[in-house]
Design goal:
Elements lengths: L1 H16 L19 E13 L9 E16 L5 E13 L12 E7 L5 E5 L8 H6 L17 E7 L6 E15 L2 E15 H11 L7 E18 L4 E19 L5 E16 L2
Antiparallel strand pairs: 1-2, 1-11, 2-3, 3-4, 4-5, 6-7, 7-8, 8-9, 9-10, 10-11
Length: about 280
């Protein structure tokens, strides 16, 4: 049961990472160079309202990690094969008695020039520590095929890796004249939302890992909403920084066996996630 609930919370971070950049209209795209290594420092501050918490106060946790993304191959059409690994994961304000031990996780995936990910391998390999796998996907900034200029908006729908649910993203190019670290950057705002069927989620995750669902039946929904603001280098085709504010409302019921009584629960979660590329 604990693994299932942990996996549900870990999926929230996946959704955040599936989030989604000058005056003359330009085509924006991700650019890849074989052998290139991108490194990001990721920090999360998480507030969770748990059922039965003392004084009805939210529990606050923090986490930092390093995300490394190595381009191992580049196709003729510009798609990159990326090996994504996290290291140096550290937690703050963990509940007393928690013996959670972070460990490195790694996946491979194809990333197209428009930001769409495909053929993700290894996402479900870490069943004991689902958070590690979730963060390896990284920020997903989607671009339209047409040229865009300041003030333009575009909509994207992407499938959340491994969970069979769609993320709806509304993006806006806010500025093309930001400056960071002495280089020009564009600012993009993304507003996203998703709804997930938890019963389907738990069954799909168990099937992907070749494991039985277990004697606990979990039903309910998770509603996710949030906003991400990114700085993107159009000339280099690279994400420089991203800050996400997200909220998740999880309404679920658990029962033991086919005829067991159902226990309804509601979890509320708010998170701030920042990603900053190493200079």
């Amino acid at each position: 049961m604990r693994k299932a609930i942990a996996a549900i919370f870990a999926s929230v971070f996946l959704f955040a990472s599936v989030s989604a950049v000058w005056s003359e209209p330009l085509i924006y795209k991700h650019k890849f160079t074989k052998g290139a290594l991108g490194k990001y420092r990721v920090k999360t501050v998480l507030n969770m309202q748990m059922p039965g918490s003392r004084d009805n106060k939210p529990m606050t946790m923090s986490m930092t990690l390093t995300l490394m993304q190595r381009t191992t191959e580049v196709s003729q059409d510009g798609m990159g094969l990326i090996k994504s690994t996290i290291t140096d994961m550290k937690y703050g304000n963990m509940p007393a008695g928690n013996n959670y031990k972070p460990k490195n996780a790694s996946i491979t995936m194809f990333v197209a020039k428009d930001g769409r990910r495909s053929n993700i391998q290894g996402l479900d390999a870490n069943t004991e520590n689902p958070f590690e796998s979730a963060y390896t996907v990284g920020e997903q900034i989607m671009f339209p095929a047409k040229p865009i200029s300041v003030g333009d908006t575009w909509d994207s729908v992407v499938q959340i890796p491994g969970y069979g649910a769609d993320m709806h993203i509304a993006s806006t190019l806010l500025s093309d004249s930001e400056t960071i670290w002495g280089q020009k950057a564009s600012k993009i705002k993304q507003v996203y939302s998703a709804n997930v069927d938890l019963e389907k989620l738990v069954k799909q995750m168990a099937a992907d890992r070749g494991q039985p669902v277990g004697s606990f039946n979990i039903t309910g929904t998770m509603d996710l909403s949030g906003t991400t603001v990114c700085l993107f280098s159009q000339s280099k085709g690279l994400l420089l920084t991203a800050t996400s504010q997200q909220k998740a409302i999880i309404k679920m019921s658990m029962s033991m066996g086919a005829n067991g009584s159902s226990t309804p629960m509601e979890f509320n979660q708010e998170a701030t996630i920042t990603s900053t590329r190493f200079k």
